[in-house]
Write a structure and sequence with these properties.
single chain; alpha/beta; globular; 204 residues; Rossmann fold; 5-stranded parallel β-sheet
Length: 204
């Protein structure tokens, strides 16, 4: 059985059940798993270890228990928005240079422990909404630095990078940003489906 691990923050967590590994939450992990399981029956098992509120330093702190010990064959990682958001709201974020340093440490240690793992790095994203509009320009500018850092890490280790910001920008043209991200950060059903579609492209 091929094991696929979803890792990230609340966008990945999506209210998953902690007491039931077969419950992936309501978000893109559930949609992605459903499509893969339908098209490739009996080949895959999925685990969602996303945790709401996580920054890159929190994922790194969980590297042994929630990544290496699980020995996944595939992993997706969506992280970065809280590294900016927590700084703007609570002065407890992770600046882009440190974000890149910890991201690099995370990936290098995963690959050292699990040399055959295939990793998809998902680009963090933001739109204007009730949670972001007060400082949207700064949020957007800072998150771009984090996204660029994530992309550099993917290139350094020859990993699949899944671009998402431009996809959300294009989807939101001429409409309401909150149709896709309810508060500018957390996806609606349509937003989660957009992420799933881009992941499927990368996975295939």
């Amino acid at each position: 059985m091929i094991k696929f691990l979803f890792q990230g923050d609340s966008i990945t967590d999506a209210e998953r059940r902690r007491d039931n590994d077969d419950n992936y939450g309501y978000g893109y992990p559930n949609l992605f798993a459903a499509e893969v399981l339908k098209n490739r029956p009996y080949e895959f098992e999925f685990i969602n270890c996303g945790i709401s509120g996580d920054r890159i330093v929190d994922v790194y702190a969980r590297i042994k228990m929630d990544i290496i010990n699980l020995k996944p064959d595939y992993m997706s990682l969506l992280i970065g928005v809280n590294d900016v958001w927590h700084e703007l709201n609570e002065e407890n974020g992770v600046a882009a240079p440190k974000f890149e340093k910890i991201y690099d440490m995370l990936i290098s240690e995963i690959l050292e422990a699990l040399p055959d793992i295939k990793i998809m790095i998902l680009e963090p994203f933001v739109l204007k909404g009730c949670g972001t509009e007060r400082y949207y320009d700064v949020f957007r500018e800072e998150l771009k630095k984090h996204a660029e850092a994530a992309k550099r890490i993917s290139e350094k280790y020859n990993l699949k990078f899944v671009p998402l910001q431009a996809k959300f920008d294009e989807a939101a043209k001429g409409g309401n940003d909150t149709y896709w991200l309810v508060d500018g950060v957390h996806p609606t059903a349509a937003g989660h489906c957009l992420i799933k579609d881009e992941m499927i492209k990368a996975f295939e």
